[in-house]
Every structure is written in C-alpha cells, then in structure tokens.
Give the backbone structure.
Amino acid sequence: MIPEQPTLPGLKAAAAGCEACDLYKTGTQTVFGEGAVHAKVMFVGEQPGDREDVEGKPFVGPAGRLLDEALVAAGIDRTRVYITNAVKHFKWKPAGKRRLHQKPNAAEISACRPWLDAEISLIKPGILVLLGATAAQAMLGRDFRVSTQRGQFIERAGLPLMMATVHPSSILRAPDDESRELEMAAFIRDLQRLATRLKG
Ligand code: URA
C-alpha cells in the first residue's frame, strides 16, 4: 500500500512488502529507486538484474557500470539524479547455476506501476529518461519504438517531459567491439542532449 503522505524512505519500506504480483516469491528483495529527492531527472530501467537483486540497489551491476560511464561522458552527476525501474523485483529462471533474466510481462509492469507513479509524484522530476523498450512502452504505450524515436523529447499531459533511449544492457549485448563502441557513442549522444536540455 502506498502511504498517504509518502516520503522516499516510507515508500521504500512499503514497497519492501509488496505482493502485488508473484515476483516477490522468487526475488531476493524489492529493489526500490534511489537518488536525489529533488532530482531534475529520473531514469527508469526495466527491472533489477542479478546483482541488483542481491545488493538491493538499482543499476549496480554491469548495466549500471555502463550507465555510470555514459553519465560521466555526458557530464551528468549520478548523485544528482534519481534511478529506478518499471518493475522492482528481479524476474529470472534457472539456467544451471545461473539465474537468467526474464522480461517482465504486462501484468507485472502494471502491478508495479503504482510505485513508479508514487516516485514520480514525490520527486517531481522535470525529465524522465526511459531506458529501453519496457520502460518506454510502460510510459508511452505498446506502439512506441525506441529504435525510431530514441533521443526525442516527448510531452504527454500530466507527465514530466520524457526521453526514451536504449537500455544499457543492449549495449553490453552488442555482437562485437565495433558495434558496441558505436552504440555507446549513440547512447552518450542521447544523454548529452539531455544534459543540454537540463542546462537550458
Ligand atoms: N537493468 C535494469 O533495467 N535495471 C537495473 O537496475 C539493472 C539492470
């Protein structure tokens, strides 16, 4: 249940007991958003990964390290932004000794939506950055395509200004060094556009 007068610690504590979908049964813990309470920018990923599930913090694993690198390159200070996910439990299936990431489905995304809405209402960011298709489609609808609309600023009534870009994990999955470098450069360009907007 969302507290009536939410604070960030209050929301985090309430979300820790969330059973709105079945993912709490297999995730280690709820991984709530983290960052500056008056952040001008909120980044929204898909869901915590294996590392985040263990540490209880968003974007601290390999995708988080890549995001950190891109933020530094774009001149954005991570300590001044807020970072969260559309879904706050790690969804996975066993693959030998490993836990293999599974994409959250529409029911899981909408079960978790009240937490994201509460974070947006509390932080009141000027800009939401949607990392990858899950976050972008959760906020902008199923027809939204990151491939064709990335980097654009999008206005929707009742919501902060939004910009969608790729998910850092997609850069990690690039087939070779050359395409990884190209994809990283394009990701940094999107973040630089964001940095320019923040200054202006
Ligand atoms: N991928 C995400 O979408 N979120 C995280 O927190 C980590 C990896």
